[in-house]
Amino acid sequence: MFVPRRRPLMRAAMMGGAGYMAGKRAARSSYRESDQEQRLEQLEQQQAAPAAPAPVAAPAPAAAPAGGDLVTKLNELKGLLDAGALTQAEFDAAKAKVLQGA
Questions:
Q1: For residues 41 and 29, what is the distance between their CA atoms, to the nearest angstrom?
Q2: Closest Cα partner for 73 from 88, 57, 94, 92?
Q3: Which residues, other chains included, contact 102 with Cβ-Cβ below 8 Å and sequence gap of 6+?
Q4: What is the mean pLDDT of residues 9-23?
Q5: In sequence order, which residues have a C-beta less than 8 Å from that of residue 91 and are 6 or more positions away?
Q6: What are residue 40's phi and psi, to 5 degrees?
Q7: 3-class SS shares of the chain: helix, strand, coil, % to 5
Q8: What is the pTM of this model?
Q9: pLDDT in tens, 61-88
Q10: Which of 53, 78, 82, 94 has the CB geometry, 3.0–4.6 Å to 58, for a possible disulfide?
């Protein structure tokens, strides 16, 4: 006796829909991973760029500075230190040079 199959189209639609959803989810996951990798690379580049600033040489005093000129030079050095152009060690060395010249 012949027994007809029950709802063959329904089963095919369910299988196709499940496959579609699985593929869509995999694509979405892949997109998230690539987006996350791109953000991490950008952050690494941003952190690497300021980590290595170009060293700035301290201005060398020309001759033995006068009393008013000494204060001016020290203020300039302090301004460079505050701006981040000089490190504390560079500031101390330049200050010592200025004071030795006085």
A1: 18
A2: 94
A3: 64, 65, 70
A4: 82
A5: 58, 77, 78, 80, 81
A6: -65, -40
A7: 75, 0, 25
A8: 0.35
A9: 555 545 678 889 989 999 999 988 889 9
A10: 94
- Residues, the chain, total? 102
Q: 46-79 b/e with 16+ CB inside 10 Å = b?
A: eeeeeeeeeeeebeebeeebeeebbeebbeebee
- Judge whether 91 and 56 are in contact, CB under 8 Å: no
User: The tokens of 45 are what?
Assistant: 């580049």
pLDDT of residue 18: 84
Share of the chain above pLDDT 70, in %: 75
Structure tokens belonging to residue 86: 């000089």
